[in-house]
Amino acid sequence: MIILASASPRRQELLKLIAENFIVIPSDIDEGVPNNIETEKSPEYLAVKKAKHIYENGHRNDVVIGCDTGVFIDGKMLGKPKNKEDAKQMLTELSGRKHKVITGCCICGNSKVNSFSQVTEVEFYELTEEEIESYIATGEPMDKAGSYGIQGKGSLLVKGIVGDYFNVVGLPVARLNKELNG
Ligand SMILES: Cc1cn([C@H]2C[C@H](O)[C@@H](COP(=O)(O)OP(=O)(O)OP(=O)(O)O)O2)c(=O)[nH]c1=O
User: In chain numbering, where does the site feature Important for substrate specificity fall (predicted)?
Assistant: First the structure.
């Protein structure tokens, strides 16, 4: 059985493009990352931790997929905003610039751990304070890395992307399909 170790409804929807049958068991881990892990490797590190946590707790006969998505700019990672102020700060930083969205994925199965990082470059239009505030008022930023959702009203902030769109939404379906199904 394939297990998706994620609470994200978007990942569940996207995994249907690859797998007909799977079950969802969210992996409740501590999302702290040790200092010796390179910043841009943080999502992959957490993806491995999420997948292993489920695999090693009663699912060694299954294939477990774990993922984590982060937004990277100026050498740091932007995760989910803690509050509206935090979201405003992140969107102000992203305004008018390019950033990377990195999704780390891990597949645990048959006593093997296979992990990778997929990178998509996203460029934002210049945003006014008013635009940022009205976007935050939609509530959309609050559960998303970097405080935006490219699949929603956040699409209006985006000037262009280079790479896999679905990687930004949280699951790099094409690469994951190749890793899973060869
Ligand atoms: C940048 C961006 C992120 N996101 C989402 C993808 C992820 O769900 C979320 C980042 O949080 P994650 O910690 O990667 O995932 P999660 O907490 O939603 O689920 P779980 O840990 O159980 O797997 O941000 C979008 O939906 N759209 C976007 O454009």
Answer: 10, 69, 151
